[in-house]
Design goal:
- By secondary structure, the chain is α+β, with helices and mostly antiparallel strands.
- The protein has 3 domains: about 90 residues, Helix Hairpins; about 50 residues, Roll (SH3 type barrels); about 80 residues, Alpha-Beta Plaits (2-Layer Sandwich).
- It contains 8 helices and 8 strands.
- The protein has a 5-stranded antiparallel β-sheet. It has a 3-stranded antiparallel β-sheet with strand order 6-8-7, with helices on one face.
- Strand 1 and strand 2 form a beta hairpin.
- The radius of gyration is 35 Å and the shape is elongated.
- About 15% of the residues are buried.
- Belongs to the MscS (TC 1.A.23) family.
- Homoheptamer.
- This is Small-conductance mechanosensitive channel.
- It is found in: Cell inner membrane; Cell membrane.
Length: about 280
């Protein structure tokens, strides 16, 4: 055994050298592919896909060559022939990995949901920082990094919040029942015009929506550019403007009123009725 091992040392050394060479070639090829895709102005996720596939192909060929040198009886054809039922078992065992791998490729190939987009999916909301062949890294709005399996993003509906720069937002504003509704509508519309973050070309909507328990409600809608200012900040400015305008016009924004009715205790009513009977 020792003599056979010594005889195999040159082949093992050559196979190790091939592995090192494969590692070097994979790095060089990955850098080359990155330069080519950068010049072609390809999306960041496609750059990662091309780089990963180049590395994978180089490592597969390098590993096969190293195994052929280290084990003379080894041939790629024998590997594929010997898989048989084993490939089926491996497929079942690594079903989730293969599913995420394929989902990652398809996510990178499609045009939507790129690196840098803000998304919502299954209770997760945040910015896409990285897409790999198995998982996607999403930085949530509160700062936490969430690693999401690609199959989840591929099989479930995904809201891409930054697909368009302009997004619509809305609030409900209630006024008291004794208010002149036309005047209130004009006051709210003028208040919206004072907010610079609102897109004036898309216009605004102020509609009387319903009779509520203690107010007549107006539905107020507007469009704003999410790339310039956060939606939450724009909404805050709208609320400040409408509240100030309604207060200045003397229009009340009512709060819910509750009327409580108190009944006399049953024992007190019975005693009172008994006294009336005796008096009669």
């Amino acid at each position: 055994m020792g003599k056979a091992f010594v005889q195999e040392l040159p082949s093992l050394a050559i196979a190790l050298a091939i592995i090192v060479l494969t590692w070097t070639v994979a790095r060089v090829m990955a850098r080359t592919s990155r330069r080519i895709t950068s010049r072609a102005h390809v999306r960041d996720d496609l750059k990662q896909l091309v780089e990963t596939l180049v590395r994978l192909v180089v490592w597969i060929f390098g590993t096969l060559i190293a195994l052929t040198v280290a084990i003379p009886s080894f041939t790629p054809a024998s590997v594929f022939a010997s898989l048989g039922v084993g490939a089926l078992a491996i497929g079942f065992a690594f079903q989730d990995i293969f599913e995420n791998f394929l989902a990652g490729v398809l996510i990178m190939l499609r045009e939507k949901m790129n690196i840098g987009d803000a998304i919502k999916c299954g209770g997760i909301a945040g910015k896409v920082e990285k897409i790999t062949l198995r998982e996607t890294h999403v930085r949530q709005l509160s700062g936490e990094l969430t690693v999401v399996p690609n199959s989840m993003l591929f099989k479930n509906p995904v809201e891409i919040l930054t697909d368009q720069h302009l997004r619509r937002n809305e609030i409900v504003v209630g006024v008291s029942y004794d208010t002149d509704l036309l005047e209130a509508q004009k006051v709210i519309e003028q208040a919206l015009l004072s907010v610079e973050a609102i897109d004036k070309d898309k216009g605004t909507v102020v509609f009387a929506q319903e009779f509520n328990s203690s107010s007549v409600d107006f539905l107020v809608q507007w469009w704003s550019d999410t790339s310039v200012q956060d939606l939450r900040l724009t909404k805050s400015q709208v609320i400040f403007a409408i509240k100030g305008a309604l207060d200045g016009a003397g229009i009340e924004i009512p709060f819910p009123n509750v009327t409580n009715t108190f009944k006399e205790p049953l024992s007190f009513l019975s005693a009172k009725a008994l006294e009336k009977k005796r008096a009669a």
